[in-house]
Amino acid sequence: MSSEFSIASWFRRELLPILADLRLAIVLLLVIAVASMLGTVIEQGEAIEFYRANYPEDPALFGFLSWKVLLSLGLDRVYKTWWFLALLILFGTSLTACTFTRQFPALKAARQWKFYTKPRQFQKLALSTELDRENLSNLEEILQKQNYRIFKENNSLYARKGLVGRIGPIIVHASMLLILGGAIWGSMTGVVAQEMIPNTATVTVDNFVDVGRWASLDRFRNWSLKVNRFWIDYTASGSIDQFYSDLSVLDREGNEIDRKTIFVNEPLRYNGVVFYQTDWSIAGINIRLNNSPVFQLPMALLNTGGNGRIWGTWIPTKPDLSEGISLLAKDLQGTALLYDTSGQLVSSVRVGGEAEINGVTLKLLDVIGATGLQIKSDPGIPLVYLGFGLLMLSALMSYASHSQVWVLQENGKLYIGGRTNRAQVAFERELLDIVEKLESESKAEATVS
Fold first, then answer.
1. Alpha-carbon span 353 to 182, nearest angstrom
2. How would you write the pLDDT of the chain (449 residues) with one tens digit per residue?
3. Residue 58 backbone phi and psi in degrees, to 5
4. Residue 124: which of 113, 116, 132, 134 has the closest Cα?
5. Helices (H), 115-257
6. What's the whole-model pTM score?
7. Torsion of CA 125, 131, 133, 138, to 10 degrees
8. Using CA atoms, how far apart are residues 150 and 176, in angstroms rounded to an integer?
9. DSSP helix/strand/coil, 414
């Protein structure tokens, strides 16, 4: 029992003040910002070969950042490393400690009221004055019109307004804790998959590129995804304007349970899973040689050294595969180029058109496009959105000034003073306006007398 008491006492006396220190929270926030910047600048989730090629050991970036250092520190997956999650947890702990040791006591103190019973107490206030007035009549009505809440005892009065401004910092901390919690929960339970699906094909999602440690893949097992149609709109100059995918979500029996045409920044959402349009490709072509059946040949993306994207395939023109031609295409507009074995351009053909090659009539029936989808599940997103919503609300709440007014009537004098935590000039004007109204009422009463 004494051991538990000593640990609790040590936590309150030694550790809690450190966690609640604003300087610690600022340092942690800066470290998190730097780590997030690294996660933005350094490519995340790539293969080891990518980092070997782009971050060699000799010469190392900045003299030390090689691919080995990068991987050992987890900079290829910053947001899922133990040290980044530890930073988030420590920052959240610091915010919680600050909330309970500073913000809640400040709110409790603001809710309490204390009457001033001696004139010398008003000397401590930055704004105070005294009037020749024998009672508090009409003052309550003036303060109520200014939206003050009034407390009165004998010949003393206390009024306040803007208590919501004291609640604002607490909501700020709560919203930041929600954002941190959502980020951690999403990192541990989120799933990201990528699929390149040919036009009219139906697939089950199985190419998972990022799976959280606590993630469940059950929600991906009960349905499949069908691309009803994929197409691209081009501008007059031939560049891509937008690409679209008409998607259907099918249950295990193949029945459609959801459908939507998606494009960039307009995803499909189903059962907590979001389908984003991210890329496109040429999956294959349909051709006929002379009077043969229709052949479907796959197309492969060629290495152009960064000079655009071109897809190609090889078409045999003899049954023994001794001769053939190469077909290249760069888009889905329907034009393909034909090259012989020496690399010379021999012809071009459009969809529905024909070309004579090596004594064979080649007819291009179709160019089959494929849609590139990112499929993402992040259960932490609702918490993050809620946190940002509360953060915006708390920012508005923080603009409210917490203003206090004390009044004491004694020996034919009326002592008035007040203070506020912000908008000092506006409060001074408000208090002067109250005093002027009292003085004008006093003059009016004197005139009547």
1. 55
2. 455 556 667 667 777 888 888 888 889 999 999 999 988 888 887 878 888 888 888 787 777 888 888 889 888 888 888 999 999 999 999 988 888 888 888 788 777 778 898 989 988 888 888 887 656 777 888 888 889 999 988 889 999 998 888 888 889 889 999 999 999 999 899 999 999 999 999 999 999 988 888 888 888 888 999 999 999 998 888 788 899 999 999 999 999 999 999 998 899 999 889 999 999 999 999 999 988 899 999 999 998 877 889 999 999 988 877 888 999 999 888 889 999 888 899 999 999 999 998 888 999 999 999 999 999 999 999 999 999 999 999 888 888 888 999 999 888 888 999 999 888 888 999 999 888 888 776 665 555 44
3. -140, 110
4. 116
5. 139-145, 164-189
6. 0.73
7. -70
8. 34
9. strand
Length of the chain: 449
Please name the amino acid found at residue 358: N
Phi, psi of 278 (to 5 degrees): -125, -25
- CB of 252 within 8 A of CB of 262? no
Q: Report which residue type is found at 53.
A: A
Q: How far is CA 31 from the centre of its chain?
A: 19
Q: Please report, for the chain, the start and end positions of each structural domain, with discontinuous segments joined by +.
A: 2-106, 113-162+401-448, 188-281+372-392, 283-369
Amino acid letter, 395 = A
Tokens of 89: 């947890």
CA distance 103 to 364: 73
Is 315:287 a contact under the CB 8 Å cutoff?
yes
Third-level CATH fold of 113-162+401-448: TATA-Binding Protein (3.30.310)
Instruction: Provide the token pair at 442.
Output: 């006093």
> Side-chain half-sphere of 359: how many Cα atoms within 13 Å?
3
- Neighbour tally for 406: CB within 10 Å: 23
Q: What is the CA radius of gyration of the chain?
A: 36
Residue 25: what residue type?
Answer: A
Per the omega criterion (within 30 degrees of 0), is the bond before 59 cis?
A: yes
Q: Are 372 and 263 in contact (CB under 8 A)?
A: no
- Report the Cα–Cα distance between both ends of the chain, in Å, rounded: 75
